[in-house]
Amino acid sequence: MYRAPRGTVDILPAEQAYWAHVQARAAEVCRLYGYERLDTPVFEDYGLFARSSADGTDLVEKEMYVFEDRSGQKLTLRAENTAPICRAYVEHGMASLPQPVRLYYLGPTFRYERPQAGRYRQHHQFGCEALGDASASLDVEVIELALRFLSSLGLQQLSILLNSIGCRQCQPHYVDLLRSHYESLAVPVCSDCRVRMVRNPLRLLDCKEPACRTVVDEAPRISEHLCPDCEIHFRDVQEQLTLLGIPYALNHKLVRGLDYYTRTVFEILPQRQGGQSAIAGGGRYDELIEQIGGRPTPGVGFATGLERIILNLKEQGITVSSPAAPAVYIAFRGDAARRAAVLVSRELRDSHIGIITSTGDRSLKAQLRHANALGVRYAVILGDDEVERGEAVVRDMSANAQVAVPQASLAAYLREE
Fold it and tell me: To pair with 406 at 20 to 30 A between CA atoms, which of 124, 331, 341, 376?
């Protein structure tokens, strides 16, 4: 028996109401802020992700689905969305548009990692990217947009963690201090941290191993080693968040899982706490477009996983109403009635009335049982005699009452009911 591959799930009809609700809210919030949708391919050139992430990151070394097509080109399934959005920005000359260019996306991403609640090997992301402006007000706009989106879904007790990880001017000095701190330790750190110390030291701050957490707590804080420009930028972000009444907490250990971030980084956490509690995250990446071959262009954005959002909606007891199912079932008995049912179904759908038409050779009694099992309110019954008279019998399944209605008036009668 075939099953969905490990780390993937089928989104069943019973779950679709949540998905439609979340995606509709995402599109509406983006409209309020002037963000336009951009869809990129689900596979990209491998080099796009390799160039936008430092050697030694889990994304490049462990998590990407990499393959060669028949021409020998090395491709990868889309592992995250920011680099492809930046690639499209460069490829389509969006630098000539009024800046910043505000874009959003909705779609699947693919990572080979251990499946866990709310995170799968194929998961779906909603996110926004604002490209072409380095001002702190755009950082705040992105944070506010993410918070407004999550709040509009009814999620409660959301908290924001905030940090600045500096830029190419101040990061190198801090990285030297961080390495010196780890090299001076008498107690060895985990194997992953030994690799990070060489390849991407900022990720040392993100280690979840208990033995490494004490080392991180005692490490120097990057907020105390920012260059003047980064200090001003970070202060402006905090002042504007305070002006908007958006509460936040500074967390000097906060970094992002990808290595292209600069300056502002943030995460939004829901009521539930734990190792995988962040429900959204993002930050500024002023050097990414240059890294993938474009001109120096600042950018800032965030991403959130739809599976994790829906998991939190359910955990907080937030229900979503399903779209109304068809309210009318057409049953028939006799060959003439069978043909008439096809025409009546089309006429009612043309009048925007949802219809389920019986199929097969079931008896009328079995057809009505089927209608009742589907929860349909009205059954339209056509027999050869009714067809000859130009009528249809409409049965109210809940009241167990029925009435004969001229077929010409059937749509108007059902709409009124």
Answer: 376
Greatest CA separation found in the chain? 96
Distances (CA, A) of 133 to 100, 284, 287, 301, 303: 5, 10, 12, 12, 19
Q: How far apart are the first and last CA of the chain?
A: 46
Topology of 13-170+226-315 in CATH? BirA Bifunctional Protein; domain 2 (3.30.930)
Say if residues 265 and 282 touch (Cβ distance below 8 Å): yes
In contact, 264 and 139? CB cutoff 8 Å: yes
Question: Amino acid identity, residue 61?
Answer: E
| Domain 328-416 part of CATH 3.40.50.800 | yes
Q: Are 134 and 194 in contact (CB under 8 A)?
A: no
Residues 336-371: tens digit of each pLDDT: 999 999 999 999 999 999 999 998 889 999 999 999
Q: Which long-range contacts (CB under 8 A, 24 or more apart) does 69-76 make?
A: 73/45, 74/45, 74/46, 74/47, 75/43, 75/44, 75/45, 75/46, 76/43, 76/44, 76/45, 76/46, 76/49
Q: Is the peptide bond before 100 cis (omega within 30 degrees of 0)?
A: yes
Question: Domain locations in the chain?
Answer: 13-170+226-315, 328-416
Please provide the DSSP assignment of 380-401 as one string. Answer: EEEEHHHHHHTEEEEEETTTTE
Q: Name the band, by pLDDT with cuts 50, 70 and 90, for residue 187.
A: low
By the 8 A CB rule, do 104 and 26 touch?
Answer: yes
Judging by beta carbons within 10 Å of its beta carbon (0-12, 13-18, 19+), is residue 210 exposed, middle or buried? exposed
